[in-house]
Amino acid sequence: MNDQEESLEVASAVMGLKQAKTVSWERVKAANQTDPQVRLLSNYIMHGFPEHKYDLEENIQDYWQYRHDLRYLMAWSSTKVGR
Known about the structure:
Layout: H1 3-15, H2 25-34, H3 36-47, H4 67-80
Helix pairs in contact: 1-4, 2-3
């Protein structure tokens, strides 16, 4: 699996989807506007995660293990998609 495929797999897990091919940046943006959990997670991705998992809100602690991948995904998407 290459880096791009791994990034899409992470995005799929974040969005709770079964197949990575169903992920689009439009869906991620829409979820960020309407889903408080996605909005909170996006804030941590952009501004940094705390040092310890338990310093996160309980509803997003499961994503702490993916924090480095999510940061990479955000950086990768900004170079590919633009803002």
